[in-house]
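Sequence in, structure out.
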Amino acid sequence: MVTEQSARTEEPQRRPAAPRLLWWCLGALAAGFALSAALTAPLAAESRLGVGEWGAIAVFAAVGVPLAVIDGRTRRLPNAGTFPLAAGLLGYWAGLATTTGQWQLLAQATITAAVIFAIAAVIALVGTLAAGDIKLFLAIGLLTGWFSWLLPLYALVAGYILAIPHAGILLARRRRVPGTDTRLPFGPYLVAAALLVTIAAELAG
């Protein structure tokens, strides 16, 4: 029997996840903006862009790598990680645009993120991407799109290339042992690919 007191105690746990996720995203957006502004505003004007871009790579790695580990273990990318990461990067780039005046790069990152998200959704119809991978592409598009219109596509291709050995192992295992779970956790390869192409772009200048 559920008492009135226990019902009141359980009520907060029954609230829909969507409002909480929205607040997390808004918090990540504000935190990303504040971090970027605090990191770059005190610097000389000529140093802000480079330092800010490395900071964005660090932010993506700080959240993306744990997400990759989760996906590798559970084959699931939680919304509580993918969406706030994208929101945090958007806020971060907005803060960097504020301190550097690079508003065209902010627009470029936002547009390319939307485009690569749509492309990933189409690829998912073929069955090679899961829902969590599509959501992760919002963050990947925002990170890589700041540097180049084409960099998100390079990250997508690089992710597939990095995953080929693992996919081959899983296919061989399925042939030997029918019924074996051969779902490929793609998140680790997408995160690694995004970091590799972004670092390469940053080093290339």
